Amino acid sequence: MGSLLLLGISVSAIFFLLLQQPEQSSSAIILSLKKRHGSSGSSGNQYSSSRPSAGFQGNRSTCSLFLGTWVRDNSYPLYKPADCPGVVEPEFDCQMYGRPDSDYLKYRWQPQNCNLPTFNGAQFLLKMKGKTIMFAGDSLGKNQWESLICLIVSSAPSTQTEMRRGLPLSTFRFLDYGITMSFYKAPFLVDIDAVQGKRVLKLDEISGNANAWHDADLLIFNTGHWWSHTGSMQGWDLIQSGNSYYQDMDRFVAMEKALRTWAYWVETHVDRSRTQVLFLSISPTHDK
């Protein structure tokens, strides 16, 4: 495993990081994320919010990909759902359903003390040739998976592709490059099993899901929002922790237990010489 990174930034920034840093130390690196709001002047960012050039601009020693702000960029969006038919599901295509505003599409991530180049799908395909990329998590991870596919397809439209949707696994292949990009639906990362007609969320077990993750060169995990759901949106009937069963418990405690199970699996089952692991931290709600 190259490194374990905790991320809360745009999908294009994530993959800029990967393309620039293919090799990391074997020890896990936890990056503390801080949301800084306010004027760019207070952050000391000397770079403008105009569209970045083709290459990286800035001092790599002071560039902070994980501290920054979203800035308006009228050249965005980089793609439209129509550019990648069948990838973005209709319920997430707000414009198709008549949303009157479009300003929310015109923002890009502006890190402190540097400018990122515009995402280059053709370069990405060359760098990741022969690799397997897997997103595992909830609907946010699914959105990230779909967004990355569309970013690539829109900038390299002539490449041959194949898509198969399933549950829990959906797969998109760039056939000319031998790249497989998958999404594995596991909203809580740990297992949910049916026991006597009940959905049991098992905070200490992950092998049922993890069997699908072993062969990936890049694993991108996320979980968060689904832990707060109640009523008909709740994803379980019972929670199992150790030998005890609960109808409910403190959701943050439950999520922490599950993440410890996940982290232990990463440390003990991931081949660190070939696989890089990222964890996408919780974001604002994405269903409106």
UniProtKB/TrEMBL annotation:
Signal peptide range: 1-27
One GO location term (cellular component): membrane
The UniProt keyword set, sorted, is: Membrane, Signal, Signal-anchor, Transmembrane, Transmembrane helix
UniProt xrefs under Pfam families = PC-Esterase, PMR5N
Q: Does the keyword Calcium apply?
A: no
At the top level, the lineage of the source is Eukaryota
Describe the family membership recorded for this protein in Swiss-Prot or TrEMBL.
Belongs to the PC-esterase family. TBL subfamily.
Q: A single Gene Ontology molecular function, please?
A: O-acetyltransferase activity
Biased amino acid composition, Low complexity: 39-53
- Membrane topology for this entry? Single-pass membrane protein
> What's the protein here called?
PMR5 N-terminal domain
